[in-house]
Amino acid sequence: MSRVCQLTWKKTSTWNNVSHSVRRTKRKFIPNLFWKNIKDPATGLIMRIRLSANAIRTLKKNWVL
Predict the structure, then answer these.
(1) Is residue 54 within 8 Å of residue 10, measured between CB atoms?
(2) 18 near 65, Cβ under 8 Å?
(3) What letter would DSSP give residue 57?
């Protein structure tokens, strides 16, 4: 499975490392992902989804978790 948040669609991005001599090499920024069990309030069904830390904080703020 790819490293993608299923709520915010954050995914791995590619940028450059820049050294002191301004040489550029590729690097990856990997999102901070976790597996979480979320209960659907309408149906009572529990879903296991992959969420970023930012999405988890947003869900906790809005009382879904």
Answers:
(1) yes
(2) no
(3) H
